[in-house]
Write a structure and sequence with these properties.
Layout: E1 16-19, E2 35-42, E3 45-49, E4 70-71, E5 76-79, E6 89-93, E7 99-103, H1 107-124, H2 153-176, H3 185-216, H4 223-237
Antiparallel strand pairs: 1-2, 1-7, 2-3, 3-4, 5-6, 6-7
Helix pairs in contact: 1-3, 2-3
Domain PH: 1-122
InterPro entries: PH-like_dom_sf (IPR011993), PH_9 (IPR041681), PH_dom-spectrin-type (IPR001605), PH_domain (IPR001849)
Region (Disordered): 234-286
Amino acid sequence: MHTCVCLSVSGCWCPHLQHLCSVPGTAPWGKRGWKMFHTLLRGMVLYFLKGEDHCLEGESLVGQMVDEPVGVHHSLATPATHYTKKPHVFQLRTADWRLYLFQAPTAKEMSSWIARINLAAATHSAPPFPAAVGSQRRFVRPILPVGPAQSSLEEQHRSHENCLDAAADDLLDLQRNLPERRGRGRELEEHRLRKEYLEYEKTRYETYVQLLVARLHCPSDALDLWEEQLGREAGGTREPKLSLKKSHSSPSLHQDEAPTTAKVKRNISERRTYRKIIPKRNRNQL
């Protein structure tokens, strides 16, 4: 199921968000639109409420929700680079493979929502179930546990690292055993689905490990300080690629020689000559 959702964030842990509840293929095109809700991320669930005054600390949210809550366990939030109709849009892929789109008013708030949703998923996602054993060769995505993890951050970090190594090994084996180009369409489709799933799992666990490492190294429990540290680490790893111009006075840099163009005179003997074709005359005709 693919669901488009959009957020508009107001900069705190319980911000105003804009939520588009529309399922492509099921709702008419004219019925799709963006709606404003007050959204609260509590634990590993996103709640869509009536307003800011309805989300008191420790208060039950039953009866205050205006839309179905969304669980973020085993999910991954990333910038929606494919969506160009609105700015500052990020997507949320849930454990059951549904896709939500959220819009934030600024790029900073979008990054904050992405980081905090992924941190909640990395913190509360329980280890996956063991793979089922059977004779069915058709690829089916495994069912992930819904219940929250009871492990510490260190144990969660080790668990996600093991899952990352397993996904990377499975992806490498899949790339080594490519199907035949002239194979059946079903086999090619199975290979494509497996590759798409393993690439997503590898990216998801890489994100989990990165966020938990930053969380473990953060000296404070405040999420704002954790986000600042995460931004500094991301800024330190992303060095700008400066294009250096080669100088004429630098002996260590070789200049790109411009292609030389010159007029070359060809010898007369080298010129291609064409012999004029003279049709044969009929000798009988005078």
